[in-house]
Design goal:
By secondary structure, the protein is an alpha/beta fold.
Length: 286
């Protein structure tokens, strides 16, 4: 769909096109990971599907403990020299793995990871402790995803522990093992969301605006990205971005976020192959 649009609209040079490798795409032993074999095949397949000659930003979707980072970087470096990739990036990496990658690029004279993309929102704040300051210090762009906590920060799920029908937390989450509900449906999260949405109602600002603004204003963040399944989701985000909440409002939002992190922090970073860190295990988070 994206490839057809870009080819038929003649707008390829007006977009930054990003894609990823690492996740399982088949049943074969080489159909996953960050090996040279898998990366080259993944990029060639993406170029064909996207009907383009290059990928502007190529992410390693999550770190691969079974593949040396030098092999990953050298494969991407070759693709950059061939003109098939413009920039390399990482996603869901621990800080120490990104640091190892940057060091490897430096000593081996390889193109480096220029961006890090990981989950970051009021209810998943772990990225802000170490990764974001590290990335800022090393001029690595920070592109957080899920700034709305998969819609949790809109308050639509309430505190009942029951997902809204048709939402990402409903049957779709159940089919994937219930990861979203296990991550967000707990008392500290419900309490934080209640305080967060109360601020939105008090000042007349959409909760979406406050959630996005908290992420975008966090020191070191380059730009948050969001996902949308419906046109109205995009329209809601565009409306939220049409103006900004004043600092006194955001000060209250930051206070709620800081209070939540002190009670139920996310244990970032994730393990190899994972997108999220481990869930809180403290009594406050149960």
């Amino acid at each position: 769909m994206i490839g057809n649009y870009l080819a038929e609209s003649d707008r390829r040079n007006n977009v930054v096109l990003a894609t990823k490798y690492r996740s399982t795409v088949g049943v074969g032993v080489n159909d996953l990971g960050a090996s040279r074999y898998h990366i080259v095949r993944a990029v060639e397949n993406s170029l064909r599907r996207l009907r383009t000659d290059r990928i502007d930003l190529l992410y390693c979707h999550s770190w691969d403990a079974e593949t040396p980072v030098e092999e990953t970087l050298r494969a991407v470096d070759d693709l950059i020299h061939q003109g098939k990739v413009v920039y390399a990036a990482a996603s869901n990496f621990p800080t120490w793995v990104l640091a190892k990658g940057l060091w490897t690029s430096d000593v081996r004279n390889l193109y480096r990871f220029e961006a890090i993309q990981s989950v970051f929102n009021v209810l998943q704040p772990g990225l802000g402790r170490e990764m974001i300051p590290f990335a800022a210090d090393h001029d690595v762009a920070v592109i957080p995803y899920s700034p709305l906590a998969s819609g949790m920060l809109t308050g639509k799920h309430g505190a009942s522990g029951k997902a809204v029908a048709g939402s990402k937390f409903d049957a779709r989450d159940d089919s994937k093992g219930g990861g979203l509900k296990s991550r967000y449906f707990n008392d500290p999260t419900f309490e934080a969301v209640s305080k967060f949405t109360a601020i939105a109602e008090k000042y007349g600002h959409p909760a979406i605006r406050l959630a996005l603004q908290w992420v975008s204003e966090f020191p070191g963040v380059t730009a948050p990205i969001f996902g949308a399944r419906k046109v109205e989701h995009i329209q809601g985000v565009l409306e939220a971005w049409s103006e900004s909440a004043p600092d006194e409002v955001m000060a209250e939002v930051r206070a709620v976020a800081d209070e939540f992190e002190s009670q139920a922090p996310m244990a970032y970073p994730p393990d190899s192959g994972q997108a999220f860190g481990t869930l809180p295990t403290s009594a406050a988070a149960k």
